[in-house]
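Please decode residue identities from the backbone states below.
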């Protein structure tokens, strides 16, 4: 169970970020708040996880793990976005000139 907590928080935060983007799709200026939102959601999920299923026996550590897991979902989103951009341009990911 311990091995599934962090990836689960990351996936849940990623899904919340995508939901947030769909809800506010018309106003792309608000996309800058996505990392703050997923960090907060990750922290809350880390705390809830610690309360339900203690892993670290330290609330602060669990909140920090949750925040970092939430922010990792933003990085995963950017990786997917960059790979789509390279694929849509028809360029090779490794041999393209930057």
């Amino acid at each position: 169970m311990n091995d599934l907590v962090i990836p689960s928080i990351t996936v849940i935060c990623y899904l919340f970020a995508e939901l947030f983007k769909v809800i506010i799709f018309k106003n792309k200026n608000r996309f800058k708040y996505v990392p703050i939102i997923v960090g907060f959601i990750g922290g809350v999920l880390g705390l809830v996880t610690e309360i339900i299923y203690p892993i670290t026996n330290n609330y602060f550590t669990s909140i920090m793990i949750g925040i970092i897991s939430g922010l990792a979902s933003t990085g995963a989103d950017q990786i997917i976005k960059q790979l789509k951009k390279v694929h849509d341009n028809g360029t090779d990911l490794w041999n393209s000139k930057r």
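Observation: The mean pLDDT is 84.
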